[in-house]
Amino acid sequence: MSDLDDDLNVDLTPLIDVIFMLVIFFIMTMSFTLPVIDFDLPQSSTAQAEQQGRTMRISVDINGNYIVDEQERTLVELNDLVKERMVTCQQDHEDLTLELVIDSQSPTQYLINIADLARAYTQGRLIVVSEKVDNNFDPTAAAQTIKESDKVN
């Protein structure tokens, strides 16, 4: 053989480096998710539905008056009342949910005040009662009506 055959060597180190870099890249970009396990739960003839807990209805009129149990209350009185009812519910091992009925024209601050109470005392359990509108609701017409009412004011 000739001298050229002895000098012919292939260095595999760069190839191995590139392969390792690709493996590291794919491992780092791979998303890891936990497997989803479907359970076929056993059935029972004596099972009970989960208790809904208690609901406290708070109404807010256009003037910002808080009404609970047909009595007008201040925000401080409402705070104390929610705290008192929450303690009662905890003693009875029930959850308290605040149900807010608010006038559509009342300022947003009143909604925020009740949401703060819900966060503080009921772990954020707040239901905002709304009125169902017809299926022919046209948002552009509603926006036009709002613009016209702003011009009047």
Describe the structure.
The longest helix is centred in the N-terminal third of the chain and has 17 residues. The chain has a domain of 78 residues: 2-Layer Sandwich (Nucleotidyltransferase, domain 5). Helix 4 links the parallel strand 4 and strand 5. With 153 residues, it is an alpha/beta fold.
In short:
This protein has 153 residues and is an alpha/beta fold. Helices cover 44% and strands 16% of the residues. The longest helix has 17 residues, at 13-29.
Overall CATH architecture of the domain at 54-131: 2-Layer Sandwich
Could you tell me the radius of gyration in angstroms? Answer: 32 Å
Strand content: 15-25%
Shape: rod-shaped
Under CATH, the topology of the domain at 54-131 can be stated as: Nucleotidyltransferase, domain 5
- Widest sheet: strand ordering: 3-2-1-4-5
Helix content estimate:
40-55%
Oligomer: single chain
Described by strand count, sense and barrel closure, the largest sheet is: 5 strands, mixed
Layout of strands and helices, then pairs:
Elements: H1 3-7, H2 13-29, E1 54-60, E2 66-68, E3 71-73, H3 75-91, E4 96-102, H4 108-121, E5 126-129, H5 139-152
Parallel strand pairs: 1-4, 4-5
Antiparallel strand pairs: 1-2, 2-3
Keywords:
16% strand; 5-stranded mixed sheet; Nucleotidyltransferase, domain 5; 5 strands; alpha/beta; 153 residues
